[in-house]
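Hi Y.,

Following your request, here is the sequence exactly as I used it, all 127 residues.
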Amino acid sequence: MNFTAAYRIFTALFMLIVTIGLGMTLNDFTSVIYVFVPLLLMLGSSFMPFFKQRKLRLMLFAAPIVILYCFGFYPWLTNYQEVAVSSSTSTLDFIIIPVWATLYGAGFVVLHEIALGVARVFDWGRW
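Below is the corresponding structure, written out as tokens. Let me know if you'd prefer a different format.
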């Protein structure tokens, strides 16, 4: 099994875990879009030639999404009702976590490409 296939399987399993974990609490269609668009971007990026050229691009894009989903959605996975009642911004937090995760992932890929360009300009890779 190559890296891309393993990445796709991991992404699909992660989507399944998020779906089961948040299953009964996602009754609003907008929330479903905000939660699954970054995950679908993770899955779709594995089909793009730009990301398939370097495995690190896939990892840099996916790592913030997985990390922020695991730690950011933890209150919703354990006790959604208490979090929703106790926090006036719980819906906003629920929407903003996937947005920031996707932006961080894209930003890491951009920084990686800038660093590669700088390394090529100064010829740091060939010593």
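The mean pLDDT is 79.

Thanks again,
Q.
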